[in-house]
Input
Amino acid sequence: MKLVTFQQDGALIPGALTVRDGRDVVVDLARADASLPNSVRGILEGGSSALAKAEAAATSATHVLDAASVKLAAPIPNPGKILCIGLNYADHAAESGQPLPDYPIVFSKYSNTVIGSGEAIILPRVTDKVDYEAELGFVIGIGGRHISEAEALDHVAGYMPINDVSARDYQERVSQWTMGKSFDTFAPMGPALVTADEVGDPHSLAIRLWIGDEALQDSNTSQLIFSVPKLVADISEVMTLEPGDIVSTGTPPGVGAACTPPRFLRAGETCNIEIEKLGILSNPIVAER
Ligand code: MN
Output
C-alpha cells in the first residue's frame, strides 16, 4: 500500500495512492472508512489491524480522487523524530574528504523542515550554497527500545524517498550539522510511504537524482555501509522509537558540493529523486521572499 497525506480545505487527510482503470488515484481513507484513525501516523499507531482496515478501505469504489488533482503533504507531516545518517555510502564519504565511520553518524532535523512532493524547497536568503541529497528513508511502525538487528525489519512500516537538503556553508561553519540541515522546507519526503510488504529487501533499490536533464546521483541502496536493521538496532539502543519516526539513511555520491565547479540549487529548478518501487519525489526550488 502507498500511504499518502493530502491537503483539502486546510485539513490533512490520510489516503492511499493506487491505480484504477489505468489512472493514478488517491482514495480518501478518512471517508472510505470513518473508523480509521485520521492520520497516517495514527494508522501506524493502530498496528496491523489498522493497516489491514486501511488496505480494505483503499479498495473503496467511492471517495476516489484523481491523483493529478490532489495536493500532497508529506506522508508523516509532523513526525516525532527525524534522524539522519551521515556518510553512509563509502564513495560519498570519499568525495566529502571524510574517513569512513565505524559507528553511524546520527544528526537530527525537525518537523519545520518537512514538506511533501510537489511543495517548494525555499532557498534561504542568507545562503547560496544549498545542496541536494537523495536518500532512502524508512518509517517506524511498531515502536520499541533495544530492538535487535534480527527483529528490526518487523518494526519498519515502510519506505520513502527523502531529500536531505543542506546549506553547506552553515553545515560546515561549526562541527554540528544541525543548523545547515534545518532551514524550513529542507526535508522533502514522499510522495508516499510505501509499506514494507511492497518493497521487500530495502538494500537493493536503485536511487537517482536529477535536475532538468542533469543526472547528478545514480547509485543503489546495496551500497549502504550501515544497513536498515543495523540503524534500527543502534538508534534504539539509545532512544525509544515510536510509530511515525523517520530515519533517512544517507546519500550516495554526486552531491552538488562535490561537483567541479560546485553545483548548488537555483530558483526555478525542480529537483527529482526516484527510488525503485518508491516513486518520484519532485520539488520546485523557489527563492525566499
Ligand atoms: Mn544526508
